[in-house]
């Protein structure tokens, strides 16, 4: 008695081109997120020093 035939996916080796493309996309995505984070931190620092220069904020606690 023969059972029903099940079509199994044949496993092939890794596709070099596909892996290079995936790595490139993931690398660009991670790099973009890192750059946006860096630009945001740079903007915060620049804003802090601009306010400090204008005298709107101070780094020394005022005594009462």
UniProtKB/TrEMBL annotation:
Localization annotation: Mitochondrion inner membrane
Entry's family note: Belongs to the cytochrome c oxidase subunit 5C family.
Free-text function comment from the UniProt entry: This protein is one of the nuclear-coded polypeptide chains of cytochrome c oxidase, the terminal oxidase in mitochondrial electron transport.
Alphabetical keyword list: Membrane, Mitochondrion, Mitochondrion inner membrane, Transmembrane, Transmembrane helix
Organism: Stylosanthes scabra
Protein name as annotated: Cytochrome c oxidase subunit 5C
Keyword Zinc (UniProt): no
């Amino acid at each position: 008695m023969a059972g029903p035939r099940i079509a199994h996916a044949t496993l092939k080796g890794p596709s070099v081109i596909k892996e290079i493309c995936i790595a490139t996309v993931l690398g660009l995505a991670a790099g973009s997120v890192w750059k946006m984070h860096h630009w945001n931190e740079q903007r915060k620092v620049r804003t802090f020093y601009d306010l400090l220069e204008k005298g709107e904020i101070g780094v020394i606690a005022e005594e009462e």
